[in-house]
Structure formats: structure tokens, C-alpha cells
From TrEMBL:
This is OsmC family protein. NCBIfam families: PRK10738.1. InterPro entries: KH_dom-like_a/b, OsmC/Ohr_fam, OsmC/Ohrsf. The lineage of its organism: Bacteria, Pseudomonadati, Pseudomonadota, Betaproteobacteria, Nitrosomonadales.
Length: 140
């Protein structure tokens, strides 16, 4: 896997993936940025959330669970001093579907957290990472 980060101006950068996708990252105005894009640490959380969400939905689909939506709500705390690393990260899944099995949803979240999600397992080496979920019955 490769990535390329190109400086645009001030504290604005463009990140490009080897698959040809690009994203703008920028700093806050007080840091010399124009607030044109996400901060790098926000991008890190979004990457982790996408990684674990991919796992959860894939596992539930393989278990033939009728999932209609999955949202990962992530909250994080950072150290007060530099380096301001993440110290706590909580991922709360809101999984919507028809008559979903709580056992299957819990299993999917646990498998992602402990076995499949490279991003959350890696971040778990530096921060306390916890997971939770709720199930919402889809409207008929």
C-alpha cells in the first residue's frame, strides 16, 4: 500500500492513495490554515471507523442478517500535552435492520475489534479502544 501527501500551501495538503483517490487536509485558521479539509487526526479516526464498519457489515451480511444501515459514532480523547496522541477511543455502532440478532451484531463487533480491523487493533496499542452497539428496527 502506498500513499502520497503533497503540500498545497500554508498547512494545507492533498493526500492521494495508490488507487487514485484524493482528499484535502488542512489546519485551523489559528494554525495558518483555511479550514478547507479535515485535520489529520480526524482522518485517522474516520479511517478506523470505516475499517471497523466494513468488517461489521461484511460479517453481518455473511451471517444473513438483514442490515439496512450501519453508523459508527466515534468519540475520542487526546492527551493534554504534545504529542497529543489518542488516549481513549469509543466506537458505538447503530445497526439498523429487520429482526437483527443481538448475538450476531455483538459477534460482528467483537470479531472486528479483536481479529479483523487492522486500524482499531493498531490504535489499541496506544489508546484504550472500546466498542458498543445498539440495534434499531427498520421501518416496514
Amino acid at each position: 500500500m502506498k500513499a502520497r501527501i503533497k503540500w498545497v500551501e500554508n498547512v494545507c495538503f492533498m493526500g492521494e492513495s495508490e488507487t487514485g483517490h484524493a482528499v484535502i487536509l488542512d489546519g485551523a485558521p489559528e494554525a495558518g490554515g483555511r479550514n478547507l479539509g479535515m485535520r489529520p487526526m480526524e482522518m485517522l479516526l474516520i479511517g478506523m471507523g470505516a475499517c471497523t464498519s466494513f468488517d461489521v457489515v461484511t460479517i453481518l451480511n455473511k451471517a444473513r442478517q438483514p442490515v439496512t444501515d450501519c453508523v459508527a459514532e466515534i468519540t475520542a480523547e487526546r492527551a493534554d500535552s504534545i504529542p497529543k496522541v489518542f488516549t481513549k477511543i469509543h466506537v458505538h455502532f447503530v445497526v439498523t435492520g429487520r429482526q437483527l440478532s443481538a448475538v450476531q451484531v455483538e459477534r460482528a463487533v467483537k470479531l472486528s475489534a479483536e481479529k479483523y480491523c487492522s486500524a482499531s487493533i493498531m490504535l489499541g496499542k496506544a489508546a484504550e479502544v472500546t466498542h458498543g452497539f445498539e440495534i434499531v428496527e427498520a421501518a416496514v
